[in-house]
Structures are given as C-alpha cells and as structure tokens.
Amino acid sequence: MAESISDPACIFCKILAGSIPSTRVLETDRAVAFLDAFPLNPGHTLLVPRDHHANLAELPDELAAHCGELLPRLCRAIKAATNAEGANVVVNLGRVAGQTVDHVHYHIIPRSPGDPIHWPWPQGRTTPEEAARLATAIRAELAS
Ligand code: AMP
Ligand code: ZN
Hints:
This protein has helices at about 10-15, 60-80, 130-144; strands at about 25, 30-35, 45-50, 85-90, 105-110. By secondary structure, it is α+β, with helices and mostly antiparallel strands. It has one domain (about 10-144): HIT family, subunit A. Strands 1-2-3-5-4 form a five-stranded antiparallel sheet, with helices on one face. A hairpin with a 3-residue loop joins strand 1 (about 25) and strand 2 (about 30-35). Adenosine monophosphate binds near residues 37, 38, 98 and 99.
C-alpha cells in the first residue's frame, strides 16, 4: 500500500494516528468517522480521509468518491442512533467559509425540530444575464 500523506502539525492527522483521542464510529482503510468534540447537536460526526488534504478542492477524486460512498450509511446510522429527523452534511472550505481545521472533513449534523441550528442561510436573487455569465465562467474553468 502507498505511504499515507500526513502533516505532523495537523490535529486531525494526530487524531488519525491515535496520538490525540477520538470517539470513532467508523473506520475504513482510507477514512475514519469520529464524533465532533464540540457538537452542534448530539451525534455530530466528522468523516475524515486518512490522507492529509487541506480542503475539499484539493481532495483527489478517488478519495472523494470513497468518502461520498460512506456518507449515506453514516447518515442512516447517525439519524437512527440519535432519533434525529434529518441531518445537514456540510463541508467548509477556507476560513471565509468557517473552516478551522485544514484537513478536509465532512460534518454530519443530526437535525431535530426546534434545535438551535438555523437553515436556510440568507438567499439572494440573480438575473438571467448574471446566471449566464457565471455559468460561462464556471464551464470555462471546468474545461481548462
Ligand atoms: P471546521 O470548522 O469545518 O474546520 O470544523 C472543524 C471541527 O473540528 C469543529 O466542528 C470542531 O468542533 C472539531 N474539532 C476540533 N478539535 C477536535 C477534536 N480534538 N476532536 C474532535 N473534533 C474536533
Ligand atoms: Zn491532517
């Protein structure tokens, strides 16, 4: 097996290596899910690939696919175990978006009616011209 990518300064790499304790709920050869130490709701879980990649935009496709494959089963288990009605699955990318740990992770946050979490975030509007301009720019980036 290829050597894993690790950053000795990264708190999640330390958790994955076992030098910082965690409460694990799922482990595969490429990813681990453990309970968030500061949960937004009980059962708030983080799914973390074992290899250190700073954020979702830098995650290799194959590892993203592995994580994506684990999410439905994790959501089912977390929902059932917490009696939650639903969940938010969130990835923060960059400080501006609230990312504080630079090792990519998926939050699975169980949701119940009346809990203290608020969605939706404030929504705006767009014009057809602006949507067309943005879509053209994004398609060009995807093709480059
Ligand atoms: P983010 O703000 O998206 O980077 O999320 C980082 C998450 O890691 C936060 O929800 C923290 O509560 C959580 N966290 C930080 N330190 C630990 C730790 N030692 N064990 C478990 N979760 C942690
Ligand atoms: Zn790391």
